[in-house]
Amino acid sequence: xxxxxxxxxxxxxxxxxxxxxxxxxxxxxxxxxxxxxxxxxxxxxxxxxxxxxxxxxxxxxxxxxxxxxxxxxxxxxxxxxxxxxxxxxxxxxxxxxxxxxxxxxxxxxxxxxxxxxxxxxxxxxxxxxxxxxxxxxxxxxxxxxxxxxxxxxxxxxxxxxxxx
Amino acid sequence: xxxxxxxxxxxxxxxxxxxxxxxxxxxxxxxxxxxxxxxxxxxxxxxxxxxxxxxxxxxxxxxxxxxxxxxxxxxxxxxxxxxxxxxxxxxxxxxxxxxxxxxxxxxxxxxxxxxxxxxxxxxxxxxxxxxxxxxxxxxxxxxxxxxxxxxxxxxxxxxxxxxxxxxxxxxxxxxxxxxxxxxx
Lengths: 164, 184
Ligand SMILES: [Zn+2]
Known about the structure:
The complex is a heterodimer of chains A (about 160) and B (about 180). Chain A is mainly alpha-helical. Chain A has helices at about 5-15, 20-30, 35-65, 70-85, 100-105, 115-120, 145-150; strands at about 130-135, 135-140. In chain A, about 50% of the residues lie in helices and about 5% in strands. Chain A has a two-stranded antiparallel ribbon. By secondary structure, chain B is mainly α. The radius of gyration of chain B is 19 Å and the shape is globular. Chain B has 2 domains: about 10-95; about 110-184, Arc Repressor Mutant, subunit A (Orthogonal Bundle). The model of chain B is unreliable at about 5-20 and about 95-105 (pLDDT under 50).
């Protein structure tokens, strides 16, 4: 077995900051080393945790800005969602749903086109439409729109439909 | 460490006006993020990589069939990957007895807790308050909702990718400690 990678290398791996060769060497080692596999899992959890915290933090800061463009985005997105008849199983969330702030405030454009409905669908946790079932976090249930319908878990109850 | 590995990201970010997706670039840019999200769920590296690959195949197929009307990455890929992971978990469970069923990888629950709770956010804020303004800025951009690459953030802040990553590692170190307070 090769030497255990340094903690910095595991960190760089989850941040996608290793070269292809470095990443491959690390993966080869981790595949045969339970200790490093566990360390990599911890590092991955921290990374995911930070992404969610960062997103949450960004939303909080945005929502504190009165009359922000985000407010307009919320209103616009809500109207669009209503017009599209988007049927979503919403759980109660505190405050307004910051639907499409990112579309107006981001510094770097997203990779591809993003429609408003997709904004809602794209980050279910963020928009409070993810649900927690017996198996943990479940994918959200979308009734409208062909792209994601088939993703609904088959053993989940039928989602509520909103009248159109 | 890779330097400026996300070269070309701006070009593709600039492709926001075009509906076509450059999957090769998207995969190169976001595959690790997808794998990491699966590792965080408790999957092994091999399985995470397999599911990530399946994720991209499914997305490409869906797009070719005209079933993807809108794509926002990496969120869509991460969601698809988590779904496949949960399905794989359910598949195993259906053939197992109650006693055999492993605990669901707690990464998913952890994520939910993170979003729902404010405790970690408060800890993160305290830890970030001890960082330099530049470090806070780096964190806010890299881990903000828009998923820019390190190269994009470095360019935006007028610093090298290497310097950005050093700063990021310092912030991560503080946050790692702050978020692990309970376990110490
Ligand atoms: Zn090892």
